[in-house]
Structures are given as structure tokens and as C-alpha cells.
């Protein structure tokens, strides 16, 4: 194989697709039998790779496997396994260590090994390298080792693996050159970082920047409501400035793997130096409390209409973490629903991308495919994900009372509609 990708999920599978399109012979290793069997049958389990594309990948020779022997003879191995948070707030590197141990057992001289899993600076050199060197081979001498942060944006129809600049940081200059040459086969622009730590930091810097700015507008949303200021309009006005400003907009919380998770890796590393990373920790505190704030605003809206939240039928519109995808990872809809349920609300949900949904193991009933009927039947509808299906006209025409946390209806002036 020219390439074996370990971890065939949201990061690994798009990488496989682009490598196959470039004519590389690609294998994949995943421990989930359902994923591997599905791919072998031409089925995709992620939003950004269509079944037809999986069929094309198989036709090009893609070999998804549960057997680590697929690594034998691989020229390049890319590790794309998940790194969730551990109980102490740092990255759980169990999957990374396991993948590195598997690679070490099959490592051959001249192989390029790249870690793409997001983690704290130093992981490639301090964690992955020693495991790989149990093979008896030395990184930077007998094999190449690099880190290249994934930049996958689920649901983005403009930027993908090919046209998003690819950062690579090598353990040595030769490692960086090898990684750059590999990615250059199917990525339009490759950017070489000074080293693995700089490449690891670049990923965390990108997401910490977004995390902090989202927290800024979320906190503004709270006090602008109290001051009677339309923050959405203020943001739109500020965004007309052609320099020095980038628009971020408030929401019910943050979701996905990157924003609510990745900045904590950096905070974890800074805490190991003996002091807190206050910007990140404050941003986390602000964003974490948004679901509670949404529930409180929902209660106030119903009170204004002479209704109690307890026993009210509340329709949650969109339970994925972002628009027009099925990905529910860290979706703020779940803590919003949890809080509303504790306050006695009768919950139903609607999402064109999700058929079944649970909160803490308890199923939440689906409202059905008829969105206008679901809106008319609810005492309160709350927009939590800005799916294209939730057009302003449908929402405002049929909802008896609407709380829009995503700004879908920010150009509508109705007493029955309120923005976050």
C-alpha cells in the first residue's frame, strides 16, 4: 500500500477519498466492525463522503480492514483516531497509543508515519515517538515521523482536503520534506511548520481563537438582551468593516469535536506548567453556561405569554451541532433538552438529519416530517441548529411562539419571535 489510514471516521475517510482520487493504493484500519463492513459494502457512515464515492474508492483499490496486517509494507501510515477528553480535562490518548503500538509492530525502514489526531503540543515527540521506537527503528533516521493537523469542516461544500492548505511539522527537516511530498500528491498547498510542536500548536491556536470569540459574542448576547440591543444587527453592522473585524455570532452553546474539546488540550498543557490558561477556561465557562441560559429564556418567554414551562410542549428544532449535517458530537441541543426536561417541559424534536434522538438514555419523541404542523402544535419552538429547512417564512408563519438561537429570523419583526 502507498498509504494506510488508521481511523476511518470524519477525518480519515475524506483523506482516503482524496488519496484514492490521486491514484494511490490505499488501505484502511479501523477497530469498528460495522464501519469496515459498511465500507466494504459501499456504505458511508459520515456526512461528507457519499456512498457513490465509497464505491469509487473501492473501485480504485481501497481496502478497509480490521486486521493490522494491512500495515505490512505500507509506505505511509496516517493516524486519524479520536482524542476525547479524559476525566482530568486533558486529551485521552488511549486510541493514539494503541494505534502507535500497532504501527510499531509492523514498522519498516523508510516508512512515513503521520499523526493527524488533535492533541497537546509535544504528543508526537513525547508519546508517539517512543512507542514507535520500540520497533528498534529510530525516528528521523530509520523512519520519518511528522504531525499534520486535520482541518476537516463537516458539511463544508467549498473547502475539503484538497483545497485546504495542509500544515506539516516533521521531527527533522527530512521528515517534514517527506510529509510535504506525500500530501503534495493530493493537496493543493502544503505549509511546512518549524517542527511537530509548532504544527500541533497551530491546530489548537485555530480552534482556541474561535472558542474565545464565540464566548465573547455569547456573553454579549446575555447583556444585550437585558439592554434591549439587537446584537445580531450590531454584528451585521460591524461586519461591514473591511479590515480588523471577523464576525462571530452567538448560539445555544458550542458543539462538534473541535471547539468544545480542543482548547482544553492547550489549557491542560499550560496547567502542567503550574498556572492556568485563563482565556480558555473563561471561554469554556461562558460557552458551557449557554444551554442553561437558553432554558431560562425559554421559561421567560412562556411566562410572558401566561404559560408555565412545566407541562408546555416545547419543540426543539435541530439537534445536530451545526447546520445541514447529521453529526451530533457535543451538540448543545442535548444539555438544552436536559435542562428543559428537568424544569418539566414536554419535549419533542425535529431534525431532517436525525430520526432517533436520546438524552441521557431517554428517547425524545420525533415531531414527524410535517414541520408546519409540528410548529403549530408546540407551545414554544426553539431553533437550535440553523438547518436550511428552517426558513424564516415557515418558522414565523406556523410557530405560535418562537425562540431563535441561531438568527434564522433576525430580519423578522414579530411579537411571537425572539432572538437569542
Structural description of this entry:
This protein has 420 residues and is of the alpha/beta class. The chain has 14 helices and 15 strands. The protein has helices at residues 12-21, 33-40, 51-59, 94-104, 123-132, 173-183, 196-227, 231-238, 258-271, 278-288, 290-304, 333-342, 371-377, 392-398, and strands at residues 3-6, 26-29, 63-65, 76-79, 112-115, 144-147, 166-170, 190-192, 313-317, 346-350, 357-359, 362-364, 380-383, 402-404, 417-419. The strands form three sheets. An eight-stranded mixed β-sheet has the order 3-2-1-4-5-6-7-8, with helices on both faces. The chain has a five-stranded parallel β-sheet with strand order 10-9-13-14-15, with helices on both faces. Helix 4 (94-104) packs parallel to helix 5 (123-132), helix 9 (258-271) packs antiparallel against helix 10 and helix 11 (290-304) packs across helix 12 (333-342). The N and C termini lie far apart (51 Å). The model has no long low-confidence stretch (mean pLDDT 94).
Concise account of the structure shown:
The chain has 420 residues and is α/β, with parallel strands linked by helices. It is built from 14 helices and 15 strands. The chain has helices at residues 12-21, 33-40, 51-59, 94-104, 123-132, 173-183, 196-227, 231-238, 258-271, 278-288, 290-304, 333-342, 371-377, 392-398, and strands at residues 3-6, 26-29, 63-65, 76-79, 112-115, 144-147, 166-170, 190-192, 313-317, 346-350, 357-359, 362-364, 380-383, 402-404, 417-419.
Give the strand order, joined by hyphens, for the main sheet: 3-2-1-4-5-6-7-8
Order of helices and strands: EHEHHEEHEHEEHEHHHHHEHEEEHEHEE
* General shape: globular
Low-confidence stretches: none
Biggest sheet architecture = 8 strands, mixed
The N- to C-terminal Cα distance equals 51 Å
Binned strand content: 5-15%
Strand runs, count: 15
What's the gyration radius in Å? Answer: 23 Å
Number of helices: 14
Task: Briefly note the structural class of the backbone.
Answer: alpha/beta
Percent helix, as a range, is 25-40%
Amino acid at each position: 500500500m502507498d498509504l494506510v489510514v488508521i481511523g476511518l471516521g470524519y477525518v480519515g475517510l475524506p483523506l482516503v477519498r482524496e488519496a484514492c482520487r490521486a491514484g494511490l493504493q490505499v488501505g484502511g484500519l479501523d477497530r469498528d466492525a460495522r464501519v469496515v463492513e459498511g465500507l466494504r459494502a459501499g456504505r458511508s457512515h459520515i456526512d461528507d463522503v457519499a456512498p457513490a464515492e465509497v464505491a469509487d474508492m473501492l473501485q480504485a483499490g481501497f481496502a478497509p480492514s480490521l486486521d493490522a496486517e494491512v500495515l505490512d509494507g505500507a509506505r505511509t501510515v496516517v493516524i486519524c483516531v479520536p482524542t476525547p477528553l479524559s476525566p482530568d480535562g486533558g486529551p485521552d490518548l488511549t486510541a493514539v497509543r494503541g494505534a502507535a503500538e500497532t504501527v510499531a509492530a509492523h514498522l519498516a525502514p523508510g516508512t512515513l508515519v503521520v499523526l493527524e489526531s488533535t492533541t497537546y503540543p509535544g504528543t508526537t515527540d513525547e508519546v508517539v515517538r517512543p512507542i514507535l521506537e520500540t520497533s528498534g527503528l529510530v525516528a528521523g533516521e530509520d523512519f520519518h515521523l511528522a504531525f499534520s493537523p486535520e482541518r476537516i469542516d463537516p458539511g463544508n461544500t467549498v473547502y475539503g482536503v484538497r483545497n485546504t492548505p495542509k500544515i506539516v511539522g516533521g521531527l527533522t527537516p527530512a521528515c517534514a520534506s517527506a510529509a510535504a511530498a506525500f500530501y503534495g500528491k493530493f493537496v493543493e498547498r502544503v505549509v511546512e511548520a518549524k517542527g511537530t510542536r509548532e504544527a500541533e500548536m497551530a491546530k489548537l491556536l485555530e480552534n482556541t481563537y474561535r472558542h474565545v470569540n464565540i464566548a465573547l459574542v455569547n456573553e454579549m448576547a446575555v447583556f444585550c438582551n437585558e439592554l434591549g440591543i439587537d446584537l445580531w444587527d450590531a454584528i451585521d453592522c460591524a461586519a461591514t468593516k473591511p479590515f480588523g473585524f471577523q464576525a462571530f455570532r452567538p448560539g445555544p452553546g458550542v458543539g462538534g469535536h473541535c471547539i468544545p474539546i480542543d482548547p482544553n488540550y492547550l489549557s491542560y498543557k499550560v496547567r502542567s506548567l503550574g498556572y492556568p490558561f485563563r482565556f480558555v477556561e473563561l471561554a469554556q465557562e461562558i460557552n458551557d453556561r449557554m444551554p442553561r441560559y437558553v432554558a431560562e429564556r425559554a421559561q421567560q418567554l412562556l411566562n410572558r405569554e401566561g404559560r408555565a414551562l412545566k407541562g408546555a410542549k416545547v419543540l426543539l428544532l435541530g439537534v445536530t451541532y451545526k447546520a445541514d449535517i447529521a453529526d451530533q458530537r457535543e451538540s448543545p441541543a442535548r444539555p438544552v433538552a436536559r435542562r428543559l426536561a428537568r424544569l418539566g417541559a414536554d419535549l419533542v424534536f425535529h431534525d431532517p438529519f436525525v430520526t432517533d434522538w436520546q438524552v441521557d438514555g431517554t428517547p425524545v419523541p420525533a415531531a414527524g416530517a410535517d414541520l408546519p404542523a409540528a410548529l403549530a402544535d408546540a407551545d414554544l419552538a426553539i431553533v437550535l441548529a440553523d438547518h436550511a429547512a428552517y426558513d424564516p417564512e415557515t418558522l414565523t408563519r406556523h410557530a405560535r411562539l418562537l425562540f431563535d438561537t441561531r438568527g434564522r429570523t433576525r430580519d423578522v419583526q414579530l411579537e411571537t419571535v425572539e432572538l437569542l
